[in-house]
Amino acid sequence: MERPADFSLSQSDEGRTAVCVGDWTAVCMDGAQDRLTTALKGLPDVTLDLTKVGRCDTSGAHELLRASEASTGQPKFLARPEITRLLELVQNAHQFEPVVVPRRHSLHQLFERIGHGVVHVGLEAFDTMVFFGHLLIAVGRALGNPRRIRWAACFQLAERAGLDAIPIVMVTTFFIGAVVGLLGANMLTSFGAQVYVVQLIGFAVLREFNVLITALLLAGRSASSFAAEIGAMKMNQEIDAMQVLGVDPFDALVFPRFFALLFTIPLLVFMATLAGLAGGLVVAWSQLGLGPVFFSQQLIDNVGATHFWVGMSKAPVLAVIIAGIGCRQGMEVGGDVESLGRRVTAAVVHAIFATIFIDALFAVIYMKLNI
């Protein structure tokens, strides 16, 4: 049973004696240490009688020592052996000052960090190539023997990772098309070339924004989901159990996700194209008076289907990149939650960066081919 800390002062021939009672712990002191310090302040020849103290922890020992230092003379302690050792331990700890280790920044450390970063990038690139090589083997096995494919998992993932994203993809590209239309209307009106806003919307939506916005949304939505799902299975040693049972994780986990995005991203890009053109049409109709018939005719005559197929040609490549990055980061998860969070974050960041880089690479290639 806990007893509150307390004390009493008595006078003797040898001076003042402070008799402490109760439990001198962090929980039970409740201000007794401050009252003791005030009572002993300026008193000479003080003796602290701790023989009646029940329990004492480092906080209590610290406060007793601090109260004894308030007296002007050399304080004396009467205590049991265990409390005496505790007081000595705390007193010795007070005598040591914290050691501050200065951090030295040098040119050598800078080059060392750069070297570690370069080696890490090289190892990541090598592991990525190994992963995609294993994925190609799994795809080859699936094409050689379609009965090995887990069709139920493939279509379930296609619905969850792809088709469920149709609303957010269409809403986003609708507003992107509307923004492009507004910018084009404001800029081209000053030159008296409002009719060309249709071409601007067509080029922007058909070539870039339909596939780019779709890929960025899937990079944040599906890549993180793939990394989290596979990473959680890796943490729970379910993947190790699959390998013990003779099941290849690439056949059971990676290939269905690869197939799901490869199957659904062209559909998502097509829906994004319709939504983006609809957003541009709304702006052109409301702001410039260009009706749907005129808008459609301008698209057919001046834009054509080539730009649509240019945008669609990027979709399978981006699907492979996004699915591969998400699954690879999930397979690299360690046994702790911190590793899971780090890999999920890396999956999103790497997928977004790879999407923008691949899109820029396609733009350069098509520019060189004059398409």
Can I get a quick summary?
This protein is an alpha/beta fold and 371 residues long. The chain contains 12 helices and 5 strands.
Average residue-wise pLDDT:
85
Rough shape? elongated
The structural domain count equals: 2
Distance between the termini: 86 Å
Into which percent range does the helicity of residues fall? over 70%
Largest sheet: 5 strands, mixed
Descriptive report:
The structure is a single chain. The chain is of the alpha/beta class and 371 residues long. It has 2 domains: 6-95, 2-Layer Sandwich (Transcription Regulator spoIIAA), CATH 3.30.750; 132-368, no CATH class. It is built from 12 helices and 5 strands. Strands 1, 2, 3, 4 and 5 form a 5-stranded mixed β-sheet that branches. Strand 1 (6-12) and strand 2 form a beta hairpin. Helix 6 packs parallel to helix 9. The protein is elongated. The mean pLDDT is 85.
Which features would summarize this protein structure in a list?
371 residues, alpha/beta, Transcription Regulator spoIIAA, 2 domains, 5-stranded mixed beta sheet, 12 helices, 8% strand, elongated
Describe the secondary structure blueprint for this structure:
Layout: E1 6-12, E2 15-24, H1 32-40, E3 46-49, E4 53-56, H2 58-68, E5 76-78, H3 81-95, H4 107-144, H5 151-162, H6 166-189, H7 197-235, H8 238-244, H9 249-288, H10 292-303, H11 306-331, H12 337-368
Parallel strand pairs: 2-3, 2-4, 3-5
Antiparallel strand pairs: 1-2
Helix pairs in contact: 1-2, 2-3, 4-9, 5-9, 6-7, 6-9, 7-9, 7-10, 7-11, 7-12, 9-11, 11-12
